[in-house]
């Protein structure tokens, strides 16, 4: 709690202009004029995090924050080409014996001498405990992909952990405590084993990790302060502190970056990118990601459960116009969920070029006819849906308005509704809009992991429900053909086997359209030119934060 009430506007413009009084965290106060503060990195984020506990993380902002204080077993280099060890001393492969010949045993050797922020030793038992916490149904985890494929975990000694799988799971190393679409870092057994569930424990706002920075204070709704962990096993961090500010409005973030009140604008939208690249005081970093901007379709909704209606929606959307108007040249039109730079990508899929006449024809085939107001009707009921997006993202807001107009041109009524990101993307247990299926159409982004595995989005068993709350099949799409193709992709460690399986998966998605993929973004990050060592990999921006300096 702040001990002095200061002008809200002044604090919104510059945290450094607001004296921090009565802080018992041990961090030094920052005051003075705008400009680079040597050793202190100031970051602007849009989304307010729900938690700082890695196993409860549900979005990329929380993933970014988690990796400042926690570590995974493996990660990916900045080029996105090679898996690299973090807490593990080597990446398990069939060649080095880390993956057994039958593909059912994965062995990790861990660094010795690693300490938690409270000084307790990190051991293999922490890895086993984190897996158990992920599998505890009482915990509101976002998804259990890969973790639920583990039969048991052995810890023969403090620096060895052995996963025994129920069946072959090709993405295991890049997924379980690696760079998955929802990366999970290791949490401490000695602090958390006593709790029946971890949903509301003090640790979630006062975490203890092994990572390069310690959370000193979290002022909810305002900022998070972190200080360097000089005992970090990968090397003493070059930064002394990080201040992460919650700034929902991108224009405010851009102005703060321009005036050097912040040094890093986390995950700037394409709309913000068009402004940032014109500012001499700002350096823009663009990195490829296994990412799409997409229109999610709730396939269980009346009307949307007809593939002809979904295809009409696809034909109604002028993707190239959306890219041209909204991305400033940072993106390209998408037709599949796999990115073009990924080995699993295929261009040989059904495409839906912008065509109003074809869209109207499909709606007519589905039994719809235009009413006096131009909106299609069937049995007297208008073809009307709610189109949602998270309110903080400028580009999604603009895209939603443009899509609304495009749909109206073919006779589909779409009413726009906005949600804060921490509600829209929350877990099932937290009442998330997407996980609970309380939507019709939704404009949002998806960032996959290093491995092309996408079964968590599209198989029947990943539909979120009370008995399986950790699924992320938001569209409720269920097709035996898809399940079979996904099984082929997951059951072999051989890329030559997996590649045609992913080609089949992309063809099915293009045919059945649970999602209209709009464009492939490159993620923009606006930074102070004084900020050095920033090298985001395709999945996580803070994987090498101990090397950052300013």
From TrEMBL:
One of its GO terms (molecular function) is peptide transmembrane transporter activity. One of its GO terms (biological process) is peptide transport. GO terms for cellular component: ATP-binding cassette (ABC) transporter complex; periplasmic space. It comes from the Bacteria. Residues 1-19 form the signal peptide. Residues 85-454 form the Solute-binding protein family domain. Keywords: Signal, Transport. Coiled coil: none annotated. Pfam families: SBP_bac_5. Belongs to the bacterial solute-binding protein 5 family. PANTHER family: OLIGOPEPTIDE-BINDING PROTEIN APPA, PERIPLASMIC BINDING COMPONENT OF ABC TRANSPORTER. This is ABC transporter substrate-binding protein.
């Amino acid at each position: 709690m702040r001990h002095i009430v200061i002008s809200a506007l002044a604090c919104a413009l510059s945290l450094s202009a607001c004296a921090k009084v009565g802080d018992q965290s041990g961090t030094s106060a920052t005051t003075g004029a705008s400009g680079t503060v040597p050793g202190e990195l100031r970051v602007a984020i849009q989304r307010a995090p729900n938690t700082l506990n890695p196993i409860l993380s549900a979005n990329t902002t929380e993933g970014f924050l988690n990796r400042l204080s926690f570590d995974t077993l493996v990660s990916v280099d900045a080029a996105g080409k090679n898996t690299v060890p973090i807490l593990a001393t080597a990446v398990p492969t069939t060649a080095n014996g880390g993956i057994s010949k039958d593909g059912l045993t994965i062995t990790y050797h861990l660094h010795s001498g690693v300490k938690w922020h409270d000084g307790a030793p990190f051991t293999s038992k922490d890895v086993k405990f984190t897996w158990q916490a992920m599998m505890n149904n009482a915990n509101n985890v976002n998804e259990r992909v890969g973790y639920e494929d583990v039969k048991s975990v052995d810890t023969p000694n403090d620096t060895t952990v052995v996963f025994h799988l129920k069946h072959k799971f090709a993405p295991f190393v890049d997924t379980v405590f690696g760079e998955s679409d929802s990366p999970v870092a290791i949490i401490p057994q000695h602090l958390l084993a006593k709790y029946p569930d971890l949903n509301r424990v003090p640790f979630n706002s006062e975490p203890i990790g092994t990572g390069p920075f310690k959370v000193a204070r979290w002022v909810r709704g305002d900022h998070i302060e972190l200080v360097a962990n000089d005992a970090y096993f990968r090397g003493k961090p070059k930064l002394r502190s990080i201040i992460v500010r919650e700034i929902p409005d991108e224009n405010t973030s851009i102005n703060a970056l321009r005036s050097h009140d912040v040094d890093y604008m986390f995950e700037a939208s394409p709309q913000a990118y068009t402004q940032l690249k014109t500012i001499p005081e700002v350096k823009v970093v663009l990195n490829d990601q296994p990412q799409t901007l997409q229109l999610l379709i709730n396939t269980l909704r009346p009307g949307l459960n007809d593939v002809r209606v979904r295809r009409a929606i696809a034909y109604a959307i002028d993707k190239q116009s959306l890219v041209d108007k909204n991305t400033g040249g940072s993106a390209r039109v998408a037709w599949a969920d796999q990115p073009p730079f990924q080995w699993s990508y295929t261009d040989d899929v059904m495409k839906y070029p912008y065509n109003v006449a074809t869209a109207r024809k499909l709606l007519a085939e589905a039994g719809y006819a235009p009413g006096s107001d131009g909106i299609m009707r069937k049995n007297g009921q208008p073809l009307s849906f709610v189109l949602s997006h998270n309110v903080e993202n400028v580009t999604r807001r603009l895209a939603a308005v443009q899509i609304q107009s495009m749909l109206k041109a073919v006779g589909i009524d779409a009413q726009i509704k906005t949600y804060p990101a921490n509600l829209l993307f929350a877990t099932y247990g937290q009442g998330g809009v997407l996980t609970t299926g309380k939507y019709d159409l939704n404009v949002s982004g998806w960032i996959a992991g290093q491995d092309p595995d996408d079964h968590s989005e599209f198989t029947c068993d990943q539909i979120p429900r009370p008995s399986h709350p950790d699924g992320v099949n938001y569209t409720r799409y269920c097709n035996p053909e898809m399940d079979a193709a996904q099984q082929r992709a997951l059951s072999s460690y051989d890329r030559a086997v997996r590649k045609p399986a992913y080609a089949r998966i992309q063809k099915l998605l293009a045919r059945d359209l649970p999602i209209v993929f709009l464009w492939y973004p490159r993620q923009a990050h606006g930074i102070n030119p004084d900020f050095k060592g920033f090298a985001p990999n395709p999945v996580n921006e803070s994987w090498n934060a101990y090397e950052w300096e300013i």
